[in-house]
Write a structure and sequence with these properties.
The chain has 182 residues and is an alpha/beta fold. It has helices at 6-11, 20-38, 53-60, 113-123, and strands at 13-18, 43-49, 67-75, 88-91, 101-109, 129-137, 150-154, 160-161, 177-180. The protein binds inosinic acid and magnesium ion. Magnesium ion (MG) binds next to loops.
Length: 182
């Protein structure tokens, strides 16, 4: 994607949907929730790259239970705002998840296809338990029925950017979540 100037780039950020402060407050609550559930048992935080890397980094710093971190990459969106419906595991975990309490840390659940596929794959590897924490949830868009154990924000059917979420790989570094407009 080409931008004629920084002003052009910034002008596509339509409006803030969730501020940096709101995100911070909810993540602190999520950290307490995780601590209360696992109560000292070690957990493995699994992040699906790249969208959830910022959420994982902030969430990990709010939990007190012993925790390890691992990454995997799956792709279901390409350069457009429409789901391609194709889910591909492009990078697998380094950990053998059997023997771990696994928490999937997701940026957003949209159609639910990506996460459903990834969860099925992980379940087959027999983790001690498997839970899902998502920053954002767009329930109106669901194609595959799927509910997170903890969802920090429910949003309407909008294409959002920032705080890890991209449009054509841009805008991941915004500290807040905004609606994207062409
Ligand atoms: P799903 O398989 O349709 O649930 O898609 C999940 C993935 O699509 C997320 O992990 C995001 O990478 C991407 N995605 C879905 N909605 C948005 C959005 O509003 N902005 C940016 N990326 C999105
Ligand atoms: Mg993406």
């Amino acid at each position: 994607m080409d931008f004629s100037s920084t002003q052009d780039y910034m002008s596509r950020i339509k409006r803030t949907i969730i501020s940096a402060d709101e995100i911070k407050n909810r993540i602190n609550d999520a950290g307490k929730f995780i601590d209360s559930i696992y109560d000292g048992r070690p957990v493995l935080l699994v992040s699906i790259l790249k969208g959830s890397f910022i959420f994982l980094a902030d969430l990990a710093r709010t939990v007190s239970v012993p925790c390890e971190i691992d990454f995997m990459a799956a792709k279901s969106y390409y350069e457009s705002t429409d789901s391609s419906g194709v889910v591909q595991i492009t990078m697998d975990l380094r950990h053998d998840v059997s023997g771990y309490h696994v928490i999937m840390v997701e940026d957003i659940i949209d159609t639910g296809r990506t996460l459903t596929d990834v969860l099925n794959l992980l379940k087959a590897r027999k983790p001690l338990s498997l839970h899902v924490v998502t920053l954002l949830d767009k329930p109106e868009r669901r194609i595959v029925p799927l509910k997170a154990d903890l969802s920090l924000f429910t949003i309407p059917d909008l294409f959002v950017i920032g705080y890890g979420l991209d449009y054509g790989e841009y805008y991941r570094n915004l500290p807040y979540i905004a609606e994207f407009g062409d």
